[in-house]
Write a structure and sequence with these properties.
By secondary structure, this protein is an all-alpha fold. It has five helices and no strands. Helix 1 crosses helix 2 and helix 1 runs antiparallel to helix 3.
């Protein structure tokens, strides 16, 4: 298996994980009523859910077709999508600041998805 195929696979896995995060947010909010309602509303309301799903699906399609064929514009578009997902989440979610502490709950799944995606993009470039 080539380095580029592994990279594309990691990028797709990252977006599938981000899709899972977006789709599971409402269920997570119902299962944890003790969390701050304002924070939960940022991720479990319909608009953030739809936006997260749309970006994940767009990222998967970009990874499976143009990125797999080696188009450089697709690589830079993928980088832009990850930045669009990463920066606002880091700026608005205080749980992301404790992600390095394994004893506190943070946005570990989100950070794992972003790291997988970045590693995949590095491997997928030609």
């Amino acid at each position: 298996m080539t380095r580029q195929k592994v990279g594309v696979g990691l990028v797709v896995a990252a977006y599938v994980l981000l899709l899972y995060i977006s789709l599971s947010a409402p269920f997570y909010a119902r299962a944890h009523p003790h969390l701050d309602p304002a924070l939960v509303a940022q991720y479990a309301s319909p608009w953030p859910l739809a936006l997260g799903c749309a970006l994940a699906v767009a990222g998967i399609m970009l990874a499976l077709v143009p990125l797999r064929h080696g188009d450089r514009w697709a690589l830079w578009t993928q980088v832009a999508i990850f930045i669009i997902l990463f920066v606002p989440r880091m700026m608005t979610d205080p749980r992301c600041l404790v992600v390095l502490d394994p004893h506190q709950h943070g946005c570990h799944t989100f950070m794992i998805a972003v790291v997988l995606g970045v590693i995949g993009l590095v491997l997928a470039r030609r």
